[in-house]
Amino acid sequence: MNTQMMRETGASRSAGLIAAPDVVRTLTVVSSLRANQPATSKYSEFQTQQTAAKESARQLQQVIDLIPLQMFILEPESSASFENQAAHEYFGPLQAASLKARMMEVTHPDDLESVMGTYKNALASGQPFEAEARLKSKDGLYRWFLQHMYPLRDEQGRIVRWCGTRIDVDDKKQSQENAHRESLALREEIDRTSMFEEIVGTSPALKAALARIAKVAPTDSTVLITGETGTGKELVARAIHKRSSRAKRPFVSVNCAAIPKDLVASELFGHEKGAFTGALQQRLGRFEMAEGGTIFLDEIGELPAETQVALLRVLQEREFERVGGTRSIRADVRVIVATHRDLPAAIEGGTFRSDLFYRINVFPVEMPALRERREDIHLLVEYFVDRYSSKMGKTIRCIERKTLDRLQSYSWPGNIRELQNVIERSMIICDTENFSVDDSWIANRACANRPLADELVAQEKEMIEAALAETRGRVSGPSGAAATLRMAPSTLDSKIKSLNIDKRRFQVN
Asked: Same domain, yes or no, for 1 and 32?
């Protein structure tokens, strides 16, 4: 009888039943029967108990096999005594008996060390744990699983077994990796199409400007950057500095329009102690701070007349004096200036010195307005969405097509700065994975601005065509259309291209 009982118990285990607890219960019953009952009665009750235990185990096995996640049982010595149907179907028959051998058999080599360490710590501490790892199926393919293990304790708190589960998270992992790869691809696309820092775009208008920047950056020449407010003039200045031989030296930026006129000279060139009321000690100016590097004078058209004279001296003689001082200080500084104003017109109006203009206009670079490079808007939107979603810890899966169309049709009077603000504002209130922009933030302004903008464009085109007709298609030179219109030839060329004017039709053979 004992031999028959052991055979049946072994058969249950080999069939994959959760037999270990029932075997213990069965052996306990047998011991009790042997001690207290006659042989016939003992055997009859033993058979009844064994049948009930097997039926209970069979029903429990069916229930556990219906569970879609994998389950397994580890004995105290770490041998696997049970796996449910889901685990058996995924792994097939496992040859190894010990936990370590089984793990080495199915765990991806790159994950094995981490998982083994986690298992050992859990078994030593008796605490539940979880771990992610790639596990090999019977077909030799790996999938990601989230594994949990929980200790099962007796009434005295001793661990008698470990119960483990595995949840297939491969689809989620693949989705995360795909999103990461898409983010990297977008970053690489932006890096590939951006010649300088955050100047993003591939439009012909931008490429033409960047080509000029690439040529002047390695030199020490003074650069005049023109363009509307918000077109990225300071970004261009920083990019030129970083690609020059002065890149490891300071880059000092000064917004001339933001400094009170009576303090501009002190801000740029510094002052001596007692130079004026409140000058309690000597102060270094921005030119001295930028020694060996680059100084960027933004909105240079706002400089007062007396400061223009001092700046002219710096550009001509490479030296200056502090306010209230008499000692000349050498200035080893590259000068980059920028303005959104029409400086030739300011010269005509008497607010800007012509000699200073010719000193700063060594190498002009005009940054195109965003409406002149609409093909860049899509890439700029993706760039700013990526930037602000990362900063705010949000996940954006897609950008609404309607939003992109609306952004591309808007005239953007504030240029890239306005676009950037709209994207940041929209990201703040975005609570889904689909990015969109509130219609009211651009639609009304777009509708209100469009008739006036169209009228101004038409007037500008008419004036340029009249000037080209008068000068027979000649753009530059004393008798060219640029001189007639009082604008830089490069500016006029850019406008001719953006307005699709064919200047050849005005030329007379």
From this structure: yes
Q: Are residues 22 and 117 in the same domain?
A: no
Tell me, rounded to whole angstroms, the distance of Cα 233 from its chain centroid: 23
Give exposure, 299-322, as e/b (b: 16+ Cβ within 10 Å).
Answer: bbbbbeeebbebbbbbbeeeebbb
Q: Please check whether residue 419 is in contact with residue 408, taking contact to mean a CB–CB distance below 8 angstroms.
A: no
Q: How far is CA 27 from CA 46, 50, 51, 74, 345, in A?
A: 9, 10, 13, 20, 106
146: which strand partners?
132, 167
Q: How far apart are the first and last CA of the chain?
A: 121
Q: Which domain holds residue 504?
A: 443-509
**Which CATH number fits the domain that encloses residue 248?**
3.40.50.300
Asked if 24 and 93 sit in the same domain, the reply is no
Q: How many residues does the chain have?
A: 509
Q: Is the pLDDT of residue 219 over 90?
A: yes
d(CA 179, CA 194) in angstroms, rounded, equals 22
Report if pTM > 0.90. Answer: no
Q: Are 9 and 19 in contact (CB under 8 A)?
A: yes
- The residue ranges of DSSP E strands in 125-174, in sequence order, are 129-136, 142-153, 159-168
The answer on 155 and 87 residing in a single domain is: yes
Strands 80-83 and 70-74: antiparallel
- Domain total for the chain? 4
Measured in degrees and rounded to the nearest 5, phi and psi for residue 367 equal -85, 125
Q: Are residues 62 and 82 in the same domain?
A: no
**With bands split at pLDDT 50, 70 and 90, how would you rate the model's confidence at 80?**
low
pLDDT at 360: 95
Contacts (Cβ under 8 Å, ≥6 apart) of 143: 134, 135, 137, 168, 170
The reply to whether 392 falls in a domain is no
Last residue of a domain, one of 31, 66, 101: 66
Q: Do the beta carbons of residue 337 and residue 224 sit within 8 Å?
A: yes
User: Of 106, 141, 168, which residue constitutes the final position of a domain?
Assistant: 168
117 and 57 housed in the same domain: no
Please check whether residues 149 and 290 belong to one and the same domain. Answer: no
Q: What is the pLDDT of residues 137-153, one digit of tens each?
A: 888 889 999 988 888 88
- Is position 272 within any domain? yes
Q: What integer is the mean pLDDT of 430-442?
A: 85
Distance CA 415, CA 371 (A): 8
Query: Secondary structure of the chain: what % helix, strand, coil (to 5)?
Result: 55, 15, 30
